[in-house]
Structure formats: structure tokens, C-alpha cells
Amino acid sequence: MAKGLFTQGICLLLERPLDSAQIESVLNGFEIVGRHEATDVEDPTCTLVLKFRPEVAGHVLVSVSTRPWPDDMGDPEESAELFVAWSLGQYGPLAFPGCLARAREQSHGWPGGHDAPPRHTAHVRVLTSYVIGRDEDDESDSGDDDEETRLLPDDYDSIAELQFLMRVISPLMELPGVICYFNPGGEVLRDATTLRQGLNHAWLNDIPPLDVWTNVRFYQAGDGWSLMDVVGNGQFDLPDMEAVFRTDAYTLGDVEEFLRKASMFSLREDTDFVDGDTAEGPGKVNWEALECDDALADPPRPTVRWIPQDGHEPPEELLDTGEDDEPDEDDDEAVDDSLGPITDQEIARLISDAFPDPPEPSDQPLDDDPDAEKPARDPDESP
């Protein structure tokens, strides 16, 4: 899903539900401008609304659920309410089905990330929005009917937004019963210690804490080839990075560092890599960029895929950019029919008894320092 009603989303997994008094006790450094209790007796969700950038109608919503994280995100026929909630971004604008399972499988920054999450029975979601609380006059004065413009302020800053969320999350992590931090858009899991270490390292080095916002994953692609990717750059409105390479030719840590540096370069220079761009990478050879409409591994998203120019041609399936994929018209119609138009009543519902959870709980079956150094480019290539 894209950014819309909600622009960022973070989650905490809990051994047992927290009550609103516990949440408020550690959020006394923030101004609480609203409290909303769900009417569902089976799942009495409480949402606290925090003041955030009032000049652009910004708010942070802290929603406490008594149910486990719904990793399948529902079905338009069997669990339509959950499916619509996911489609509207209520579990984070970049959450995609299976994100928790993939985060567990690829939890390299926190070894406990594989075994700890299945213990959770409840969760907290922390979301940002610039729609909830907006006055009608604010929209009419803008004179712009473009939906993205109406949903995001003109001076939107994703980094400042995420940094504010880290301030909200940090005291919550110290509450009893909190198992871990979970970033569904970046598919990252961290306990309190590794989260604190990542944030402190970033602060001391004056760099964004990419290793707690995004994940680097590794896959064996077969026939001696490997895939490594970054997931979560969409939080910064940038494409994710991928690399395909011969497994026996490169060190995994070097490839990860290369992808981290490429992400940092795009973020700091506010520029995208394009087809044919080159950068010196692992093995001291040039790696060439390939723009892709879809990634090789879930979640679906645009990427820049890096291929070493070392004389080895990747298999055809690793060069698939996804541009020829045709959407399933039936699926599109099902989604459209389920969603319908986003009305004022729907927006109001989001801070009343919204954030529905699934009817039944379900079982949930390489980090190097992110350096600010820019990857070298081929002088013959355009920036």
C-alpha cells in the first residue's frame, strides 16, 4: 500500500495487553489531544492521539490492541473488515501480508527476532496522519485537488517524522510485557537493547538509523547465484535496493555495506539511480543499476537492482524487472469494491472504534555501519 491516510507505522509486540493508563504514564512528555475507546467488547482497543505538527494538522495515533498482529491482513471475502483496514493503511502504509514472518526469517540484527515474536498476544500500533483532525477550510484554502497533496503537507519530511516516532516508541519499549519493536514497512525486529544501540549509534554519527528502519535480507537464488535486498526505503519515498551476484565471488558483508551506502546516497542526495548508472562495489568492480518496477522477493515494490560487471551474466529470472506484469482485473475489482470511496465518515471512524483486529488470533508459524560515504559513480554516466 502507498502512503495516504497514514504516512508511517511502527508496532510493538506484547506478551500481554497494556492499558491506557500504562501508556499515558510514559508518554507524559507528549501532549495528548484525544482519547478514543473501541466499542468492541471482545477487543477493547484504546487509541491515544498525540499532538504532532499542528500547523499541518499532523497527529500521532497510539492504538493498543488486545489481539496478535494479523500477519495475513485479511481476505476481501472471508475477513473483509480486516482487509479494508489494511488497505487503508491502519497497520502501516507499507505493511504487506507476511511482513512479520519475513522479519522473523531475516532477523540478522537481533538473533532473538526469530523465536521471540510468537510469544506475543497483543500489540501497539503507532501511526502518523495529516488527515485526522484537518479542518475543511484547510483543504479548500489549498486550492489543490490532488489527493497526494491533500494527504501530505507541502513540507513533508519522512526522516523528521520517523525520528518523532522513535521518541514516542522509546519510552513504550520500557513497559513490562513489551517483547520487541517491529517495523512492518521495513520488516525489522529489535528488542529494547538492540533498538537503543542502533539509535545511539546513529545519533553519535549524525546519520539516520537505517538499520532499525530498514532490513537487509539474503536469499539463495540457485545455480550459484544469490539475491540480497533492502526493504523499507519506501518510508523515505525511495526505491529499495537489490543485488544479484555469484555466491562464491563476494563477501555478504561487503554486498550489504554496498546496498546500505547506495541507500544512504539516495537519501542524502535526494536523487534516484537510473538504468546504466554504475558504482564501484564489492570485488573492486563496477556494479550497474537496473531500474525495476517490482522486486524479486515480497513485498512488491520498485527497486534498483545492482549487477556486478564481472563477466558473469545472471539467469534470466534475476533480470526480470516486473514491467510486463499484467494486473489481475478480477483482483482489482475485488479491492475496489471492498474499499469504495474514502469518505469523511470513514476518516472519523479511524479515531473512534476503528483499527479492527482479526476475529481469531493466529499462530505465527548482517548489519554493518550505514556510512554516509557516497558510492563512486562512473564519470561517463549521468548522476
H and E order:
EHEEEHHEHHHEEHHEEEHEEEHH
User: Which stretches are low in confidence, meaning pLDDT under 50 for 5 or more residues running?
Assistant: 139-149, 331-383
Structural class: alpha+beta
Please state the CA-atom Rg, rounded to the nearest Å: 21 Å
Distance between the termini: 29 Å
- Please work out how many helical segments DSSP would assign: 11
The count of strands amounts to 13
What would you note in describing this structure?
The structure is a single chain. β11 and β12 (286-292) form a beta hairpin. The relative contact order is 0.16. It contains eleven helices and 13 strands. It has two domains: 8-210 and 331-349, no CATH class; 215-319, no CATH class. The chain is globular, with a radius of gyration of 21 Å. The chain has helices spanning 20-26, 80-87, 99-105, 136-142, 147-151, 158-172, 192-205, 210-213, 252-269, 329-339, 344-349, and strands at residues 8-14, 32-37, 46-51, 59-65, 122-129, 178-183, 188-190, 215-222, 225-231, 240-246, 278-280, 286-292, 303-308. Strands 2-3-4-5-1-6-7 form a seven-stranded antiparallel sheet, with helices on both faces. The protein is of the alpha+beta class and 383 residues long.
